[in-house]
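Sample log: Copper amine oxidase-like N-terminal domain-containing protein.
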Amino acid sequence: MKKNNILFKSFLHKLGIITLILISIFNFSHGSSPVYANHSIGVYIDNKPLKMDVPPIIRSGRTLVPISAIGNALSCKITWNERNQSVIIRKQASIIRLSINSKLAYIDDNPMHLDYPPVIVNGRTMVPLSFVANALNYDIKWDPVRMNVYVHSDPVNMTMAEAKAADSSIKVLDITTLEMNIDGQIKKVQLANVVCANEDNKLLNTGGACILGSISNPKLDEIKELLASGNVSVKVTQNLDKDTVIAEVYIDGASLSQLLIELGYANSIKN
């Protein structure tokens, strides 16, 4: 009798383990839980955090966000059809049609395939952020280190806020050469159309970069203060190599090159 009890308890123990394994396999295969890192996902629209009452989720490598939140942030008109579980996103002449649990979407009546369909989570319609942003001609970037998504209305602009979020700071290498994060890569940036005013410095490539000679550090410190004083945007005009670009740099819309000319630190080389 005692032996039978031991065998029965052993059977129940094994049965419990098998049940737990089966439950785990079922949950994993059906994707019942969103995939999160150790911290939540951040979404920024033109460097302003997107306010959401339901946090973003990642499914099949795609970030999904509440349609109401992203729609309002991008100034879209959202129409929800309860009967067929579909949503229409309108902005100016653009129209996007999405349906819950369907990978078929439409942009201006053109059929498109989604990597992951819209879903409903906690009563909110969650849509693929990159698909919606790209369809409306917004620029979108993913920061895998901080788990942040950046959506920009102007794809050529990268502000200081984004540079800092990517764990990067702008370095002043010399009067007309910076080092900064552009699209997730550290680049040497030669200011376009200017050359150092100091005659002892040599012109490099076509961007007007100069080598430090007798230029004093206080001038470099002043440039650093200028860069830290406002939002920095960059417009790349030429790629010299994989690590170096020629670019126009702006601080709150003012040309850094022009500021350097006015300070007497640089001369214009425009034709």
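Observation: The longest strand covers residues 232-241.
Observation: Helices lie at 2-29, 67-73, 129-135, 160-165, 217-228, 256-263.
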